[in-house]
Write a structure and sequence with these properties.
679 residues, alpha/beta, Immunoglobulin-like, 5 domains, 11 helices, elongated
Length: 679
């Protein structure tokens, strides 16, 4: 039970002060005039002013509350190195026992693991949450058992008591880490991209001038280099293929270092072509020629060279050659000297007129077999005696004309195989497409028929020849869709996909396996022309394998979701298809810095005069210290007793009840009057 004097004024304190001042002036006036009752006047004023303040004696029944010590135990990934976690557990158990043995003391243990995703150690977030659940007036200290590597220092709360950091790890610890500081998301094929990387030795590392470096691209054979330690190294790399390239940099684990988890880094770069070079040869002016030209010119990644044969050799109109402004067709330069510079050659309604000798067309055939691409957009000329099929190109074209031209309206449709092929898959709404008005009848060879026309006759046929690709569109009426005839159709999507498939864009490969990563999970995608696929064999970063079954989500597309158990490089294999994918960040945040250090927490610790002590020096003793005094020293740490309590009951006894105030004031006033009246 405790007691204290309290006031409950009837008027504001400023008004009471004014009244007190007036009373004092009256007493001083009486003293100056020599009135003998001035002391009685003084006491009367004191009684009246005190009555306005209403003093009371307050008694409280208090129940003492225990002090609370918050103990944060770091169990993040970096704490699992070199026996730190066991050291932390032993120290936490001993400290908790010592604290609980102290009178009037409780311990709140908070375990902090890895943050969500790659957010690292969220020590301050956990401390803020724990403090929100406890009264600040009872917190006597904060003990942090950690390696000091936290990643949310900006969320440090305002502490009511000293913080003590008990540091795990040893002073002789050292670690080697590899950091890739500059890696673009995209790079141009055929041009080197420069990556900046660095190998650092942290802690009490043995002196090393150089360290080995290994580089793997898409899980292939590693290439070995030696680079200096502690210096930025710029490394030029040329991507081997378009699409996603997964590059793994690593340095072997050195003897005595803490961990090899930060000895590797994954970089994923998309390879893109600088410019796609297309040669478009139109045999004669027609409406479809503008469609091809507009399509290819609208793509900023395409360099188009377009020739339209306006004046064939057999044309004789008497105009002197010197007066013609037409450009001569540079056949030798295009088809002999620079043919390999093009990614795609399109013959649009082209027929043999003696402009391209057989030796040039034979060179085109060789160009395809060695990796080039040829697309033939056939018109009536393809069924004639001058057809381009009646040339060395017959060996590579996917269909043979029957010499029949079908001049009737028909609605193009996608075949069953076309529903699975990336060029035509997903072209929905065939029933609403506009009609085409002409088709060349052909007999397909080994090619794949993706679209059909009149009486299900082949309309779009694709084939692979040697290392290259060929395609035949057995109609010159695709331009009707671009004009919106009878509602039009997906002409832009169809022709763009067709052109990019010819140029071997990875996104349009009909047989493909790839994965899309999101954090620690990935979506495995298998595209195929077959009706079913086998299981995907996943090789994890630690070398173990796992089988995953895929489910068909659309024609020719099979998918599965997989949760990766750890960060690193995963290899996927299904049949003849293989892919690699990196899960997680290039370097896990928990292993960016592994040497135990109290540097990050020093500002928060020093704010209330706490301390940073290493557990390898022994467990410190615990002392009680006053607020504002040093809370840590050699071999000891302190807590600040809060002496908090809970008020159970409150009683107030007025010191000047109304009757007593009236009696005293009246007595002093009457006494002063009588004393001064006699005089």
């Amino acid at each position: 039970m405790t007691g204290q004097l309290v006031f409950d004024p009837l008027l504001p304190w400023s008004a009471i002060a004014v009244l007190g001042g007036l009373s004092a002036l009256g007493v001083m006036l009486a003293l100056w005039r020599g009135l003998r009752g001035w002391p009685l006047r003084f006491f009367a004023g004191v009684v009246l002013v005190a009555a306005l303040a209403q003093p009371s004696f307050q008694e409280e029944d208090r129940a003492p509350l225990s002090d609370i010590v918050l103990m944060l135990v770091d169990k993040s990934a970096s704490q699992r190195l070199a026996g730190r976690l066991q050291t932390t557990e032993d120290a936490a158990a001993t400290l908790a026992a010592r604290l609980e043995a102290r009178p009037n003391t409780e311990v709140r243990r908070i375990e902090v693991g890895d943050g969500d995703g790659d957010t690292g150690t969220q020590l301050m977030t956990a401390l803020s949450a724990a403090m929100a659940e406890e009264p600040r007036g009872r917190i006597a200290g904060v003990f942090v058992l950690s390696d000091g590597r936290l990643h949310d220092l900006d969320r440090a709360p305002n502490l009511p008591a000293p913080m003590q950091l008990l540091l795990t790890g040893r002073e002789q610890d050292w670690d080697r880490r590899l950091v890739v500081s500059n890696a673009p998301a995209f790079a141009i094929l055929g041009e080197p991209v420069t990556l900046t990387l660095r190998i650092d030795d942290d802690g009490a590392a043995p002196r090393a001038v150089q360290a080995p470096l290994e580089i793997e691209i898409d899980g292939g054979e590693a290439q070995s280099f030696t680079i200096p330690v502690g210096e930025d190294v710029e490394l030029p790399i040329e991507l081997p293929h378009g699409g996603l390239n997964v590059i793994r940099f690593s340095t072997p684990e050195a003897a005595g270092e803490l961990t090899d988890r930060n000895n590797a880094a994954l970089v994923q770069i998309n390879g893109v072509r600088d410019r796609l070079r297309v040669l478009l040869v139109s045999g004669e002016p027609h409406a479809g020629g503008r469609t091809w030209r507009n399509l290819l010119k609208s793509d900023s990644s395409v360099d188009l060279v377009h020739f339209t044969i306006l004046r064939p050799p057999e044309k004789q109109d008497g105009v002197p050659v010197s007066e013609l402004s037409l450009i001569a067709f540079p056949t030798r330069e295009l088809f002999l000297e620079k043919i390999d510079d093009f990614d795609l050659i399109i013959f649009d309604r082209y027929k043999r007129r003696g402009i391209l000798p057989s030796i040039y067309l034979d060179n085109v055939r060789n160009y395809v077999e060695t990796g080039g691409a040829v697309l033939v957009a056939a018109g009536p000329d393809f069924a004639s005696a001058d057809s381009i099929y009646r040339s060395p190109l017959a060996d590579i074209l996917p269909a043979e004309p029957t010499a029949r031209i079908i001049d009737e309206g028909f609605r193009p449709k996608v075949t069953d195989l076309g529903q699975r092929h990336p060029v035509t898959a997903g072209l929905a709404g065939a029933e609403t497409w506009g009609r085409w008005l002409r088709q060349v009848e052909v007999e397909p060879g080994d090619g794949e028929v993706l679209m059909s026309g009149v009486d299900d006759k082949p309309l779009l046929i694709l084939d692979r020849v040697g290392e290259g690709r060929v395609a035949l569109l057995a109609s010159d009426q695709a331009w009707l869709w671009s004009r919106g005839y009878e509602g039009g159709g997906p002409q832009l999507d169809l022709l763009r996909r067709l052109a990019h498939w010819m140029m071997k864009e990875p996104d349009l490969e009909e047989e493909a396996l790839w994965a899309e990563a999101s954090g620690q999970s990935m979506r495995i995608i298998r595209r195929t022309l077959e009706d079913s696929v086998g299981t995907v064999t996943i090789t994890k970063p630690d070398g173990t394998t796992e089988e995953v079954s895929l489910s068909e989500v659309s024609p020719g597309r099979f998918e599965a979701l997989y949760e990766g158990p750890e960060i690193g490089l995963y290899r996927l294999v299904e049949g003849d298809e293989m892919a690699v994918i990196g899960l997680g960040p290039a370097a896990p945040k928990e292993f960016e810095q592994t040497i135990a250090s109290g540097e990050a927490l020093e500002p928060a610790v020093d704010a209330l005069r706490g301390g940073v002590l290493r557990l390898e020096d022994g467990l410190p003793s615990i002392r009680a210290v006053a607020v504002g005094r040093p809370a840590a020293g050699r071999g000891w740490i302190g807590i600040t007793p809060r002496e908090a309590y809970q008020t159970m009951d409150v009683r107030q006894i007025p010191l000047l009840p109304a009757w007593l105030t009236l009696l005293l004031a009246s007595a002093f006033i009457i006494g002063a009057w009588l004393r001064e009246g006699r005089r």
